[in-house]
Structure to design on (185 residues):
């Protein structure tokens, strides 16, 4: 069977919220010729940062996530603002969430977080030799604890369910592909 694109019959906005807009598309199935509505969350791109110290420790953030009503262990990240490039957003988010800085951000990969309902991309950057140079600069809706863990512990932390955020797991997968030498312990 050869798949064909669905024909877009119409699209409308159905609300604008702080971090996403809701879009409703009506599309026709090329197989059945029936039309259906699909709900899409439109969002700016996201970034994730793997901050690595000179001692091969990863700087993590731990924060409460309302979707699961629990805490998650993550790497710094956030929205790419209109005035940002993904690289600049990565460096900005790193400093805002942790107080750490690094000299350069190396692109290691990009994913579509959930193409069934989201239209955006998430870029992952590695920042080496980060150092703490200041305090966190959190917005009013953020409460973030900064922690460090040895890079060598990351595979175990993923396997044991200490790290469960799918985009963080993707980030470390990209890192292992881009820099397999970092994972030879």
């Amino acid at each position: 069977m050869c798949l064909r694109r669905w024909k877009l019959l119409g699209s409308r906005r159905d609300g604008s919220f702080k971090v996403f807009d809701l879009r409703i598309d009506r599309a026709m199935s090329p197989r059945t010729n029936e039309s259906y509505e699909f709900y899409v969350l439109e969002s700016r791109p996201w970034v994730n940062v793997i901050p690595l110290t000179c001692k091969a420790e990863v700087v993590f953030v731990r924060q409460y996530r309302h979707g699961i009503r629990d805490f998650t262990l993550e790497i710094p990240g956030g929205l790419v603002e209109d005035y940002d490039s993904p690289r600049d957003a990565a460096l900005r988010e790193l400093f805002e969430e942790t107080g750490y800085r690094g000299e350069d951000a190396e692109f290691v990969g990009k994913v579509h977080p959930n193409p069934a309902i989201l239209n955006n991309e998430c870029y992952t950057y590695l920042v080496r030799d980060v150092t703490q140079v200041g305090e966190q600069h959190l917005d009013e809706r953020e409460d973030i604890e900064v922690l460090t863990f040895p890079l060598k512990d990351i595979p175990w932390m993923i396997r044991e369910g200490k790290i469960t955020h799918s985009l963080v797991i993707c980030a470390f997968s990209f890192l292992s592909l881009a820099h397999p030498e970092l994972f030879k312990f």
User: Anything to note?
Assistant: The chain has two domains: 7-42, 46-183. Helices lie at 86-98, 154-159, 166-178.
